[in-house]
Amino acid sequence: MPSVTQRIKEIKQPRGGYVNPRKALKETNLGIVPPHDPKEENVSPGLVGIAVDYLTRFMTGTPVREAFDISYLGASIILEDADFYGKQVTGLDDRSIVAAIRLAGFDTVYRAGRMTYRPVEEIDPNAATIENVRAMVESGLKFFEEYGPVTHDGLTFEGAYTDTVQTGDGDFMTADTLWDFKCSVNPPTNKHTLQVVMYWLMGLHSVHAEEYRAVKRLGFFNPRLGSVYTFDVADIPAETLHEIEVSVIGYDEGAAIF
Predict the structure, then answer these.
(1) Are 58 and 69 in contact (CB under 8 A)?
(2) Would you say which domain of life the source belongs to (predicted)?
(3) Residue 153's pLDDT is what?
(4) What SS3 class is residue 1?
(5) Do 230 and 104 belong together in one domain?
(6) Residues 41, 140, 223, 108: is their CA dihedral positive or negative?
(7) Which band of pLDDT confidence, cut at 50, 70 and 90, is reported for residue 239?
(8) How many CA atoms lie within 13 A of 58 on its CB side?
(9) Domain residue limits at 97
C-alpha cells in the first residue's frame, strides 16, 4: 500500500520544495552531539536511529513494550521472543543499549517483510556505536525537557487515508507542535518538510482532527546533530496547502480544508 514517504518519492516538488527548508526552518542546537564519527559505528544508521528513537521514549517513561511496539510486532511475526531483549533494557548502561539495538532489529520484519530480517543475536555494537547511542538519547532527554511533554506519540490518521496515500504514521506531538524524529548526518530536506506537512494535513482530515487544530508548528528533532528545526504552519501559503491536499495526498476538491 502506498505510504506517505513513497508518495513523496513519486512526485516532483516545485523548485526548493513546497516548503523550502533553507528558508523556512529555524534551527536551535541543544549542545549534545555524539562523541564519535558515524563512520566508526558498526551498526547501520537506520537501525541506530530506530534504537535511539525507541530508547529515548523508554527513558522518558514509556514502558519498553510500548516504546518498542513495532519491534515486538516484528518479532511476533517470526515467532521470536522480543521480551528476552526487552527485559534487558533498563537504562543507558552498555547492556541496555546493546539489547535495545538488537530489539530494534525486529522492526524491519513488520515494516519491510521477513526477507529483510537479519538474526538480531548477530548484531554486535562496538564501543563507538554504544557511546554514540548514549549521547543521542541524552540529547533526546534534553529535547523533551525543553520542548515536552509529549501529548501523543505513534501518530496515525484514521479516516484521512486516500487511494493515493494509504499508510503513514507520525512520531509525536507536544502541546502545539507535530514532531518528526530524524537521526541523520544531514539537516532536513524538502522531502522531510513535505512529510510533516502531509502528516499535519492528514491529521486535520482524520478522526483526531481536534487535536491537530491545536498545532501551530511543525518540527524535527535530530539527535545526531543535536539540533531542533521548526517552522510555523501559519507561514505556509493556503494555496500551497491546498495543492498538497489535492495533488499530493489525493483529497477531492470539495473535501479540501484549504
Answers:
(1) no
(2) Bacteria
(3) 83
(4) coil
(5) no
(6) positive
(7) very high
(8) 27
(9) 43-125
User: Where a domain ends, among 125, 160, 192?
Assistant: 125
Distances from the Cα of 12 to the Cα of 128, 172, 191, angstroms: 38, 27, 10
Give the pLDDT confidence of 165-223 residue by residue, as tens digits: 999 989 899 999 999 999 999 999 999 999 999 999 999 999 999 999 999 999 999 99
Structurally, how many domains does the chain consist of?
2
- Cβ 43 vs Cβ 125: under 8 Å: yes
Cα Rg, the chain, nearest whole Å:
18
Closest CA to 230 of 169, 177, 151: 177
Q: Does 38 fall in a domain?
A: no
Element (H, E) at 111: helix 107-112
DSSP string across 104-141: HTTHHHHHH-GGG---GGG----HHHHHHHHHHHHHHH
Residues 121 and 165 in one domain: no
Considering the domain architecture, whether residues 21 and 57 belong to the same structural domain is answered as no
pLDDT, tens digit, 9 for 90 and up, residues 130-178 = 999 999 999 999 999 999 998 988 899 999 999 999 999 898 999 999 9
Alpha helices (H) along the chain: 4-10, 21-24, 45-59, 64-67, 69-77, 83-86, 94-104, 107-112, 127-147, 190-205, 209-212, 238-243
Angle between helices 94-104 and 45-59 (to 10 degrees): 120
β pairing state of 170-173 and 177-181: antiparallel
Which amino acid makes up residue 51? Answer: A
Distance between CA 106 and CA 84 in Å, rounded?
12
> In the numeric block, which cell numbers belong to residue 109?
520484519
Q: Is 241 in contact with 201 (CB distance < 8 Å)?
A: yes
* In contact, 197 and 237? CB cutoff 8 Å: no
